[in-house]
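Support request, please re-run this one:
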Amino acid sequence: MKAFRDALPLLDHHAEVLSDGLSGYLFTPGRADGPVPALLHVGGYDGTGEELYASAGPALERGYGFAAVNGPGQGSALYDRRIAMRPDWEAVVPGMVDALIKHPQVDPGRVVLVGRSFGGLIAPRGASGEHRLAAMIVDPGQLEMGSAVMNRLGDLGQHLDDPAAAAQFESLLTIPALRAFLAPGWLPTA
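Re-run finished. Output below.
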């Protein structure tokens, strides 16, 4: 995250770190004559705003602003502030829109919510609580993910909430690379 932030001044377009109610980045086209429509883009479970930057170019070329954001359980919200994922994104997205439309380069009447990966599940739920959105895009749209995850896990799915597995998982946290990846999402119940 720090390396990405350090590279922002090197970009060919306006880029700023978002704060004050919104974690992530806002990229806007260089020659806008006024407020521009903006994509409010949320990624997947444990995704980061930085990884969403790959989608910014096409939006900027078309005159859109692009907000690559971290919600609860994502990016800096998870890794730096330890805010876990939550299911009620209808309570999250209105605050995101409030924070985004405070930026004078964003047209408050033309905000499009985009959800990618797990964002295809949480974005529609978030949109249900936010009437100011002009549109929503989900890639892929997901009605529910529980059965798909359980099918992929097979017999391992029976051990997800098994307290006997905690010691084995804790042993994985002794490996530095796995600790960096897994520890932020590991919230022991005891």
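The beta strands are 14-18, 23-28, 36-42, 65-70, 106-116, 135-139. The longest helix spans residues 119-127.
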